[in-house]
Amino acid sequence: MIGVFDSGIGGLTVVKELFRLLPEYRVLYFGDTARTPYGNKSEKTILRYAIQDTELLLEKGAQIIVVACNTASAVAAEELKRKFNVPIFEVITPAVKKAVAVSKNHRIGVIGTAATVKSGIYERLIKQNGRKFAIISKPCPLFVPLVEENWIKRPETKTIAKKYLQSLKISSIDSLILGCTHYPLLKEIIQVKIGRRIKLVDPAQETVLTIKEFLAAHPEIEKTLPKNQSHQFYLSDLTPKFQDIANRWLGKKIKLQLVEME
Amino acid sequence: MIGVFDSGIGGLTVVKELFRLLPEYRVLYFGDTARTPYGNKSEKTILRYAIQDTELLLEKGAQIIVVACNTASAVAAEELKRKFNVPIFEVITPAVKKAVAVSKNHRIGVIGTAATVKSGIYERLIKQNGRKFAIISKPCPLFVPLVEENWIKRPETKTIAKKYLQSLKISSIDSLILGCTHYPLLKEIIQVKIGRRIKLVDPAQETVLTIKEFLAAHPEIEKTLPKNQSHQFYLSDLTPKFQDIANRWLGKKIKLQLVEME
Protein backbone atom coordinates (compact mmCIF):
# COMPACT_ATOMS: atom_id res chain seq x y z
CA MET A 1 0.00 0.00 0.00
CA ILE A 2 0.99 3.61 -0.54
CA GLY A 3 1.08 5.09 2.96
CA VAL A 4 0.46 8.83 3.22
CA PHE A 5 0.66 10.89 6.38
CA ASP A 6 -0.04 14.49 7.24
CA SER A 7 -0.50 16.64 10.35
CA GLY A 8 -4.23 16.59 9.65
CA ILE A 9 -6.45 16.67 6.63
CA GLY A 10 -4.28 18.85 4.36
CA GLY A 11 -2.57 15.75 2.96
CA LEU A 12 -5.81 14.77 1.26
CA THR A 13 -4.70 17.09 -1.55
CA VAL A 14 -1.92 14.52 -2.17
CA VAL A 15 -4.47 11.68 -2.00
CA LYS A 16 -6.58 13.52 -4.56
CA GLU A 17 -3.60 13.57 -6.94
CA LEU A 18 -2.92 9.87 -6.23
CA PHE A 19 -6.54 9.07 -7.15
CA ARG A 20 -6.15 11.11 -10.34
CA LEU A 21 -2.69 10.04 -11.51
CA LEU A 22 -2.25 6.58 -9.93
CA PRO A 23 -5.84 5.40 -9.53
CA GLU A 24 -5.04 1.68 -9.48
CA TYR A 25 -3.13 1.60 -6.15
CA ARG A 26 -4.50 1.21 -2.66
CA VAL A 27 -3.93 4.20 -0.38
CA LEU A 28 -3.47 4.09 3.40
CA TYR A 29 -3.84 7.57 4.91
CA PHE A 30 -3.05 8.81 8.38
CA GLY A 31 -3.89 12.33 9.54
CA ASP A 32 -2.69 13.36 13.00
CA THR A 33 -5.78 15.44 13.76
CA ALA A 34 -5.37 15.00 17.54
CA ARG A 35 -2.17 17.07 17.40
CA THR A 36 -2.79 19.22 14.33
CA PRO A 37 -1.32 21.60 13.22
CA TYR A 38 2.43 20.89 13.02
CA GLY A 39 3.38 24.23 11.43
CA ASN A 40 3.44 26.17 14.70
CA LYS A 41 5.46 23.58 16.66
CA SER A 42 9.19 23.08 17.25
CA GLU A 43 11.44 20.94 15.02
CA LYS A 44 12.04 18.46 17.83
CA THR A 45 8.34 17.87 18.40
CA ILE A 46 7.57 17.66 14.66
CA LEU A 47 10.33 15.06 14.23
CA ARG A 48 8.97 12.94 17.08
CA TYR A 49 5.47 13.06 15.60
CA ALA A 50 6.71 12.21 12.07
CA ILE A 51 8.53 9.11 13.34
CA GLN A 52 5.40 7.94 15.19
CA ASP A 53 3.25 8.58 12.10
CA THR A 54 5.62 6.56 9.89
CA GLU A 55 5.73 3.68 12.38
CA LEU A 56 1.94 3.60 12.43
CA LEU A 57 1.69 3.40 8.63
CA LEU A 58 4.34 0.65 8.48
CA GLU A 59 2.52 -1.37 11.16
CA LYS A 60 -0.63 -1.12 9.10
CA GLY A 61 1.13 -2.44 5.99
CA ALA A 62 2.46 0.58 4.09
CA GLN A 63 5.23 -0.35 1.61
CA ILE A 64 5.95 3.21 0.51
CA ILE A 65 5.72 6.31 2.69
CA VAL A 66 4.63 9.71 1.42
CA VAL A 67 5.21 12.61 3.81
CA ALA A 68 2.30 14.73 2.56
CA CYS A 69 2.93 17.56 5.00
CA ASN A 70 5.38 20.28 3.96
CA THR A 71 6.29 21.01 7.56
CA ALA A 72 7.13 17.35 8.31
CA SER A 73 8.90 17.06 4.94
CA ALA A 74 11.02 20.09 5.75
CA VAL A 75 11.91 19.04 9.27
CA ALA A 76 11.82 15.23 9.32
CA ALA A 77 12.15 13.61 5.87
CA GLU A 78 15.95 13.22 5.98
CA GLU A 79 15.80 11.54 9.38
CA LEU A 80 12.93 9.27 8.27
CA LYS A 81 15.01 8.15 5.24
CA ARG A 82 17.90 7.27 7.55
CA LYS A 83 15.70 5.50 10.06
CA PHE A 84 13.31 3.45 7.91
CA ASN A 85 14.23 0.98 5.18
CA VAL A 86 11.39 1.72 2.74
CA PRO A 87 11.06 4.24 -0.10
CA ILE A 88 10.16 7.60 1.45
CA PHE A 89 8.83 10.50 -0.61
CA GLU A 90 8.46 14.04 0.57
CA VAL A 91 6.76 16.97 -1.11
CA ILE A 92 9.59 19.48 -1.22
CA THR A 93 12.15 18.06 -3.67
CA PRO A 94 9.58 17.53 -6.45
CA ALA A 95 8.26 21.08 -5.98
CA VAL A 96 11.80 22.48 -6.13
CA LYS A 97 12.52 20.53 -9.34
CA LYS A 98 9.41 21.90 -10.98
CA ALA A 99 9.99 25.50 -9.84
CA VAL A 100 13.59 25.43 -11.08
CA ALA A 101 12.35 24.09 -14.43
CA VAL A 102 9.64 26.72 -14.94
CA SER A 103 11.38 29.82 -13.57
CA LYS A 104 12.87 31.93 -16.34
CA ASN A 105 14.22 34.84 -14.30
CA HIS A 106 15.49 32.60 -11.44
CA ARG A 107 13.42 34.43 -8.84
CA ILE A 108 11.20 31.94 -6.99
CA GLY A 109 8.67 32.69 -4.24
CA VAL A 110 7.81 30.26 -1.45
CA ILE A 111 4.85 30.44 0.93
CA GLY A 112 4.29 28.02 3.83
CA THR A 113 3.80 27.61 7.57
CA ALA A 114 6.08 29.33 10.08
CA ALA A 115 8.02 26.06 10.64
CA THR A 116 8.50 25.34 6.92
CA VAL A 117 9.72 28.85 6.11
CA LYS A 118 11.94 28.95 9.20
CA SER A 119 13.58 25.64 8.21
CA GLY A 120 14.96 27.34 5.07
CA ILE A 121 14.80 24.04 3.21
CA TYR A 122 13.33 25.45 -0.01
CA GLU A 123 16.14 28.01 -0.21
CA ARG A 124 18.81 25.34 0.37
CA LEU A 125 17.43 22.93 -2.21
CA ILE A 126 16.78 25.57 -4.86
CA LYS A 127 20.28 27.03 -4.42
CA GLN A 128 21.75 23.58 -5.11
CA ASN A 129 20.67 24.33 -8.68
CA GLY A 130 22.93 27.34 -8.88
CA ARG A 131 23.70 30.54 -7.04
CA LYS A 132 21.85 32.52 -9.68
CA PHE A 133 18.56 31.63 -7.94
CA ALA A 134 16.96 34.11 -5.54
CA ILE A 135 14.27 32.83 -3.17
CA ILE A 136 11.73 35.09 -1.52
CA SER A 137 9.80 33.37 1.30
CA LYS A 138 6.77 34.40 3.30
CA PRO A 139 5.04 32.49 6.11
CA CYS A 140 1.23 32.59 5.80
CA PRO A 141 0.08 31.01 9.08
CA LEU A 142 -3.57 32.07 8.77
CA PHE A 143 -4.13 30.20 5.49
CA VAL A 144 -4.50 26.82 7.26
CA PRO A 145 -7.22 27.94 9.70
CA LEU A 146 -8.96 29.85 6.88
CA VAL A 147 -9.09 26.70 4.74
CA GLU A 148 -10.24 24.60 7.70
CA GLU A 149 -12.95 27.22 8.38
CA ASN A 150 -13.92 26.70 4.70
CA TRP A 151 -13.57 30.45 4.09
CA ILE A 152 -12.17 29.66 0.66
CA LYS A 153 -13.91 32.36 -1.34
CA ARG A 154 -14.63 34.89 1.37
CA PRO A 155 -13.67 38.57 1.13
CA GLU A 156 -11.77 38.31 4.46
CA THR A 157 -9.57 35.59 2.97
CA LYS A 158 -8.92 37.74 -0.09
CA THR A 159 -7.84 40.64 2.12
CA ILE A 160 -5.49 38.43 4.14
CA ALA A 161 -4.07 36.85 0.97
CA LYS A 162 -3.42 40.30 -0.43
CA LYS A 163 -1.62 41.33 2.74
CA TYR A 164 0.53 38.17 2.86
CA LEU A 165 1.41 38.27 -0.84
CA GLN A 166 2.15 42.01 -1.06
CA SER A 167 5.91 41.69 -0.51
CA LEU A 168 6.14 38.75 -2.94
CA LYS A 169 4.19 40.63 -5.58
CA ILE A 170 6.68 43.49 -5.73
CA SER A 171 9.71 41.20 -5.67
CA SER A 172 9.71 40.24 -9.39
CA ILE A 173 9.29 36.49 -8.84
CA ASP A 174 7.98 34.54 -11.84
CA SER A 175 6.98 31.37 -9.96
CA LEU A 176 5.52 30.63 -6.53
CA ILE A 177 5.66 27.35 -4.61
CA LEU A 178 2.51 26.62 -2.57
CA GLY A 179 4.58 25.15 0.26
CA CYS A 180 1.76 23.77 2.42
CA THR A 181 -0.74 21.04 1.54
CA HIS A 182 -3.68 23.27 2.40
CA TYR A 183 -2.72 26.06 0.03
CA PRO A 184 -3.83 24.48 -3.28
CA LEU A 185 -7.36 24.94 -1.94
CA LEU A 186 -6.72 28.70 -2.08
CA LYS A 187 -5.12 28.50 -5.54
CA GLU A 188 -7.67 30.79 -7.21
CA ILE A 189 -7.37 33.59 -4.66
CA ILE A 190 -3.58 33.27 -4.56
CA GLN A 191 -3.37 33.42 -8.36
CA VAL A 192 -5.50 36.57 -8.49
CA LYS A 193 -3.60 38.34 -5.70
CA ILE A 194 -0.10 37.42 -6.87
CA GLY A 195 -0.94 38.13 -10.51
CA ARG A 196 -1.86 35.97 -13.49
CA ARG A 197 1.67 35.90 -14.93
CA ILE A 198 3.15 34.07 -11.93
CA LYS A 199 3.34 30.29 -12.33
CA LEU A 200 2.04 28.45 -9.23
CA VAL A 201 3.77 25.19 -8.27
CA ASP A 202 1.66 22.61 -6.40
CA PRO A 203 3.89 20.15 -4.48
CA ALA A 204 1.08 17.55 -4.23
CA GLN A 205 0.90 17.15 -7.99
CA GLU A 206 4.67 17.12 -8.49
CA THR A 207 5.13 14.55 -5.72
CA VAL A 208 2.66 12.12 -7.22
CA LEU A 209 4.32 12.50 -10.64
CA THR A 210 7.63 11.62 -8.94
CA ILE A 211 6.07 8.51 -7.37
CA LYS A 212 4.69 7.54 -10.79
CA GLU A 213 8.17 7.75 -12.32
CA PHE A 214 9.62 5.78 -9.41
CA LEU A 215 7.10 2.95 -9.83
CA ALA A 216 7.77 2.82 -13.58
CA ALA A 217 11.50 2.51 -12.85
CA HIS A 218 11.06 -0.08 -10.08
CA PRO A 219 8.75 -2.86 -11.33
CA GLU A 220 9.96 -5.13 -8.49
CA ILE A 221 8.31 -2.76 -6.00
CA GLU A 222 5.40 -1.81 -8.22
CA LYS A 223 4.25 -5.40 -8.62
CA THR A 224 4.00 -5.94 -4.85
CA LEU A 225 1.55 -3.05 -4.36
CA PRO A 226 -2.09 -4.12 -3.92
CA LYS A 227 -4.21 -2.87 -6.80
CA ASN A 228 -7.72 -2.27 -5.64
CA GLN A 229 -9.80 0.55 -4.27
CA SER A 230 -10.04 -0.53 -0.61
CA HIS A 231 -8.44 2.68 0.59
CA GLN A 232 -8.17 3.22 4.33
CA PHE A 233 -8.28 6.57 6.09
CA TYR A 234 -7.16 6.87 9.71
CA LEU A 235 -7.24 9.97 11.90
CA SER A 236 -6.00 10.35 15.48
CA ASP A 237 -9.11 12.40 16.27
CA LEU A 238 -12.55 12.45 14.65
CA THR A 239 -14.91 15.39 14.35
CA PRO A 240 -17.83 15.94 11.96
CA LYS A 241 -15.91 18.85 10.42
CA PHE A 242 -13.08 16.60 9.23
CA GLN A 243 -15.62 14.29 7.62
CA ASP A 244 -17.26 17.22 5.80
CA ILE A 245 -13.98 18.61 4.53
CA ALA A 246 -12.70 15.17 3.45
CA ASN A 247 -15.87 14.43 1.50
CA ARG A 248 -15.82 17.84 -0.14
CA TRP A 249 -12.13 17.75 -1.10
CA LEU A 250 -12.17 14.24 -2.50
CA GLY A 251 -15.59 14.67 -4.11
CA LYS A 252 -16.91 11.48 -2.57
CA LYS A 253 -17.91 10.10 0.82
CA ILE A 254 -14.98 8.36 2.51
CA LYS A 255 -14.94 6.34 5.71
CA LEU A 256 -12.68 7.86 8.38
CA GLN A 257 -11.48 5.58 11.17
CA LEU A 258 -10.11 6.56 14.57
CA VAL A 259 -6.69 5.34 15.70
CA GLU A 260 -5.21 6.39 19.04
CA MET A 261 -1.63 7.58 18.94
CA GLU A 262 -0.60 7.29 22.60
CA MET B 1 0.85 25.87 44.54
CA ILE B 2 -1.96 27.08 42.32
CA GLY B 3 -1.76 24.84 39.25
CA VAL B 4 -3.10 26.31 36.01
CA PHE B 5 -3.37 24.48 32.71
CA ASP B 6 -4.39 25.47 29.22
CA SER B 7 -4.20 24.05 25.71
CA GLY B 8 -1.36 26.48 25.03
CA ILE B 9 -0.50 30.01 25.99
CA GLY B 10 -4.03 31.44 26.18
CA GLY B 11 -4.25 30.55 29.87
CA LEU B 12 -1.63 33.17 30.62
CA THR B 13 -4.53 35.64 30.68
CA VAL B 14 -5.64 33.78 33.84
CA VAL B 15 -2.10 33.91 35.23
CA LYS B 16 -2.08 37.65 34.59
CA GLU B 17 -5.22 38.01 36.73
CA LEU B 18 -3.66 35.78 39.42
CA PHE B 19 -0.61 38.06 39.49
CA ARG B 20 -2.90 41.09 39.77
CA LEU B 21 -5.50 39.85 42.26
CA LEU B 22 -3.62 37.14 44.21
CA PRO B 23 0.01 38.24 43.87
CA GLU B 24 1.26 36.45 46.98
CA TYR B 25 0.74 32.86 45.77
CA ARG B 26 3.09 30.70 43.76
CA VAL B 27 1.77 29.70 40.32
CA LEU B 28 2.56 26.48 38.46
CA TYR B 29 1.53 26.73 34.81
CA PHE B 30 1.27 24.05 32.16
CA GLY B 31 0.49 24.87 28.51
CA ASP B 32 0.02 21.92 26.15
CA THR B 33 1.67 23.65 23.20
CA ALA B 34 2.68 20.34 21.58
CA ARG B 35 -0.99 19.56 20.98
CA THR B 36 -2.51 23.04 20.82
CA PRO B 37 -5.24 24.01 20.00
CA TYR B 38 -7.96 21.99 21.77
CA GLY B 39 -10.90 23.95 20.33
CA ASN B 40 -10.98 22.07 17.01
CA LYS B 41 -10.73 18.58 18.54
CA SER B 42 -13.30 16.03 19.70
CA GLU B 43 -14.68 15.85 23.26
CA LYS B 44 -13.08 12.44 23.81
CA THR B 45 -9.61 13.68 22.89
CA ILE B 46 -9.97 16.92 24.88
CA LEU B 47 -11.02 14.91 27.96
CA ARG B 48 -7.99 12.61 27.65
CA TYR B 49 -5.65 15.61 27.36
CA ALA B 50 -7.26 17.43 30.31
CA ILE B 51 -6.79 14.38 32.57
CA GLN B 52 -3.11 14.12 31.55
CA ASP B 53 -2.61 17.86 32.12
CA THR B 54 -4.14 17.65 35.61
CA GLU B 55 -2.02 14.60 36.52
CA LEU B 56 1.09 16.47 35.46
CA LEU B 57 0.27 19.50 37.63
CA LEU B 58 -0.50 17.28 40.63
CA GLU B 59 2.78 15.38 40.20
CA LYS B 60 4.59 18.71 40.22
CA GLY B 61 2.94 19.74 43.47
CA ALA B 62 -0.24 21.64 42.57
CA GLN B 63 -2.72 21.81 45.46
CA ILE B 64 -5.46 23.59 43.50
CA ILE B 65 -6.21 23.12 39.80
CA VAL B 66 -7.44 25.91 37.53
CA VAL B 67 -8.68 24.79 34.12
CA ALA B 68 -7.78 28.01 32.31
CA CYS B 69 -9.02 26.79 28.93
CA ASN B 70 -12.69 27.34 28.10
CA THR B 71 -12.73 24.32 25.81
CA ALA B 72 -11.33 21.99 28.50
CA SER B 73 -13.61 23.61 31.11
CA ALA B 74 -16.63 22.98 28.90
CA VAL B 75 -15.77 19.40 28.06
CA ALA B 76 -13.74 18.03 30.97
CA ALA B 77 -14.20 19.98 34.23
CA GLU B 78 -17.04 17.82 35.58
CA GLU B 79 -15.06 14.63 34.99
CA LEU B 80 -11.92 16.16 36.53
CA LYS B 81 -13.91 17.05 39.67
CA ARG B 82 -15.13 13.44 39.93
CA LYS B 83 -11.70 11.97 39.29
CA PHE B 84 -9.35 14.13 41.38
CA ASN B 85 -9.63 14.90 45.07
CA VAL B 86 -8.43 18.53 45.01
CA PRO B 87 -10.29 21.83 44.52
CA ILE B 88 -10.82 22.28 40.78
CA PHE B 89 -11.83 25.62 39.27
CA GLU B 90 -13.00 26.16 35.74
CA VAL B 91 -13.60 29.41 33.88
CA ILE B 92 -17.22 28.94 32.80
CA THR B 93 -19.27 29.03 36.02
CA PRO B 94 -17.74 32.34 37.21
CA ALA B 95 -18.35 33.91 33.78
CA VAL B 96 -21.97 32.73 33.82
CA LYS B 97 -22.50 34.14 37.31
CA LYS B 98 -21.17 37.52 36.23
CA ALA B 99 -23.14 37.63 32.98
CA VAL B 100 -26.39 36.73 34.76
CA ALA B 101 -25.68 39.50 37.29
CA VAL B 102 -24.98 42.23 34.73
CA SER B 103 -27.56 41.40 32.06
CA LYS B 104 -30.66 43.56 32.38
CA ASN B 105 -32.62 42.30 29.35
CA HIS B 106 -31.68 38.63 29.90
CA ARG B 107 -30.18 38.29 26.44
CA ILE B 108 -26.57 37.10 26.71
CA GLY B 109 -24.09 36.52 23.88
CA VAL B 110 -21.34 33.89 23.98
CA ILE B 111 -18.34 33.62 21.66
CA GLY B 112 -15.81 30.77 21.80
CA THR B 113 -14.10 27.96 19.92
CA ALA B 114 -16.06 25.45 17.86
CA ALA B 115 -15.81 22.84 20.66
CA THR B 116 -16.92 25.25 23.41
CA VAL B 117 -19.94 26.51 21.49
CA LYS B 118 -20.89 23.00 20.35
CA SER B 119 -20.80 21.76 23.97
CA GLY B 120 -23.71 24.10 24.77
CA ILE B 121 -22.45 24.46 28.33
CA TYR B 122 -22.91 28.23 28.58
CA GLU B 123 -26.56 27.86 27.51
CA ARG B 124 -27.19 25.09 30.04
CA LEU B 125 -25.60 26.95 32.95
CA ILE B 126 -27.20 30.29 32.16
CA LYS B 127 -30.65 28.67 31.78
CA GLN B 128 -30.29 27.24 35.30
CA ASN B 129 -30.85 30.85 36.38
CA GLY B 130 -34.27 30.93 34.78
CA ARG B 131 -35.98 30.24 31.49
CA LYS B 132 -36.25 33.97 30.87
CA PHE B 133 -32.65 33.97 29.63
CA ALA B 134 -31.91 33.81 25.91
CA ILE B 135 -28.38 32.87 24.82
CA ILE B 136 -26.99 33.68 21.39
CA SER B 137 -23.72 31.85 20.62
CA LYS B 138 -21.19 32.21 17.82
CA PRO B 139 -18.01 30.22 17.27
CA CYS B 140 -15.07 32.44 16.24
CA PRO B 141 -12.36 29.90 15.33
CA LEU B 142 -10.05 32.40 13.61
CA PHE B 143 -9.63 34.56 16.72
CA VAL B 144 -7.08 32.15 18.28
CA PRO B 145 -4.70 32.05 15.26
CA LEU B 146 -5.13 35.83 14.81
CA VAL B 147 -4.03 36.43 18.42
CA GLU B 148 -1.16 33.95 18.09
CA GLU B 149 -0.09 35.76 14.88
CA ASN B 150 -0.14 38.93 17.03
CA TRP B 151 -2.51 40.58 14.53
CA ILE B 152 -4.24 42.25 17.46
CA LYS B 153 -4.80 45.67 15.95
CA ARG B 154 -4.72 44.83 12.25
CA PRO B 155 -7.45 45.85 9.80
CA GLU B 156 -7.86 42.19 8.72
CA THR B 157 -8.69 41.25 12.31
CA LYS B 158 -11.22 44.07 12.51
CA THR B 159 -12.92 42.84 9.33
CA ILE B 160 -13.09 39.27 10.63
CA ALA B 161 -14.38 40.44 14.02
CA LYS B 162 -17.07 42.46 12.30
CA LYS B 163 -18.11 39.42 10.27
CA TYR B 164 -18.21 37.10 13.30
CA LEU B 165 -20.06 39.57 15.51
CA GLN B 166 -22.63 40.71 12.94
CA SER B 167 -25.35 38.25 13.99
CA LEU B 168 -24.74 38.97 17.69
CA LYS B 169 -24.91 42.71 17.11
CA ILE B 170 -28.43 42.57 15.68
CA SER B 171 -29.68 40.15 18.33
CA SER B 172 -30.30 42.72 21.11
CA ILE B 173 -27.89 41.16 23.63
CA ASP B 174 -26.72 43.46 26.41
CA SER B 175 -23.73 41.36 27.57
CA LEU B 176 -21.18 39.17 25.83
CA ILE B 177 -19.06 36.41 27.37
CA LEU B 178 -15.53 36.18 25.90
CA GLY B 179 -15.61 32.38 26.10
CA CYS B 180 -11.99 31.64 25.16
CA THR B 181 -8.84 32.62 27.05
CA HIS B 182 -7.35 34.26 23.95
CA TYR B 183 -10.25 36.61 23.38
CA PRO B 184 -9.52 39.20 26.11
CA LEU B 185 -6.50 40.11 23.98
CA LEU B 186 -8.98 41.25 21.31
CA LYS B 187 -11.19 43.05 23.83
CA GLU B 188 -10.79 46.48 22.22
CA ILE B 189 -11.71 45.35 18.71
CA ILE B 190 -14.58 43.22 20.01
CA GLN B 191 -15.94 46.14 22.06
CA VAL B 192 -15.86 48.46 19.04
CA LYS B 193 -17.48 45.95 16.68
CA ILE B 194 -20.19 44.74 19.06
CA GLY B 195 -20.96 48.28 20.27
CA ARG B 196 -20.00 50.29 23.33
CA ARG B 197 -23.23 49.60 25.21
CA ILE B 198 -22.60 45.83 25.41
CA LYS B 199 -20.95 44.68 28.65
CA LEU B 200 -18.05 42.27 28.00
CA VAL B 201 -17.49 39.47 30.53
CA ASP B 202 -13.92 38.16 30.90
CA PRO B 203 -13.90 34.63 32.42
CA ALA B 204 -10.23 34.94 33.49
CA GLN B 205 -10.98 37.83 35.81
CA GLU B 206 -14.17 36.27 37.22
CA THR B 207 -12.41 32.95 37.84
CA VAL B 208 -9.61 34.52 39.84
CA LEU B 209 -12.16 36.47 41.91
CA THR B 210 -13.88 33.13 42.63
CA ILE B 211 -10.57 31.59 43.74
CA LYS B 212 -9.97 34.61 45.96
CA GLU B 213 -13.34 34.10 47.66
CA PHE B 214 -12.65 30.38 48.04
CA LEU B 215 -9.31 30.98 49.75
CA ALA B 216 -10.87 33.52 52.10
CA ALA B 217 -13.52 30.94 53.03
CA HIS B 218 -11.02 28.06 53.41
CA PRO B 219 -8.11 29.22 55.60
CA GLU B 220 -7.11 25.56 56.17
CA ILE B 221 -6.23 25.32 52.44
CA GLU B 222 -5.02 28.89 52.06
CA LYS B 223 -2.38 28.50 54.78
CA THR B 224 -0.79 25.49 53.03
CA LEU B 225 -0.14 27.39 49.79
CA PRO B 226 3.48 28.53 49.32
CA LYS B 227 3.71 32.31 49.31
CA ASN B 228 6.59 33.41 47.17
CA GLN B 229 7.25 34.42 43.61
CA SER B 230 9.05 31.28 42.37
CA HIS B 231 6.48 30.70 39.66
CA GLN B 232 7.07 27.82 37.26
CA PHE B 233 5.98 27.71 33.63
CA TYR B 234 5.98 24.43 31.73
CA LEU B 235 5.10 23.87 28.08
CA SER B 236 4.97 20.59 26.17
CA ASP B 237 6.67 22.31 23.21
CA LEU B 238 8.93 25.34 23.08
CA THR B 239 9.25 27.85 20.25
CA PRO B 240 10.64 31.40 20.29
CA LYS B 241 7.15 32.67 19.41
CA PHE B 242 5.67 31.34 22.67
CA GLN B 243 8.43 33.06 24.62
CA ASP B 244 7.72 36.36 22.85
CA ILE B 245 3.99 36.18 23.42
CA ALA B 246 4.39 35.12 27.08
CA ASN B 247 6.76 38.00 27.82
CA ARG B 248 4.50 40.48 26.06
CA TRP B 249 1.28 39.33 27.74
CA LEU B 250 2.69 39.18 31.26
CA GLY B 251 4.75 42.33 30.79
CA LYS B 252 7.92 40.66 32.07
CA LYS B 253 10.40 38.02 30.97
CA ILE B 254 9.44 34.59 32.23
CA LYS B 255 11.37 31.34 32.07
CA LEU B 256 9.56 28.65 30.09
CA GLN B 257 10.55 25.03 30.66
CA LEU B 258 9.94 22.04 28.42
CA VAL B 259 8.14 18.97 29.76
CA GLU B 260 7.39 16.00 27.51
CA MET B 261 3.86 14.67 27.70
CA GLU B 262 4.23 11.20 26.19
UniProtKB/TrEMBL annotation, chains A, B:
It catalyses: L-glutamate = D-glutamate. The keyword Cell wall biogenesis/degradation applies. Pathway: Cell wall biogenesis; peptidoglycan biosynthesis. Transmembrane segments: none annotated. The active site is at 69 (proton donor/acceptor), 180 (proton donor/acceptor). Keywords: Cell shape, Cell wall biogenesis/degradation, Isomerase, Peptidoglycan synthesis. The keyword Nucleus does not apply. Substrate binds at residues 6-7, 38-39, 70-71, 181-182. It comes from the Bacteria. Belongs to the aspartate/glutamate racemases family. Provides the (R)-glutamate required for cell wall biosynthesis. This is Glutamate racemase. The lineage of its organism: Bacteria, Candidatus Kerfeldiibacteriota. The gene is murI.
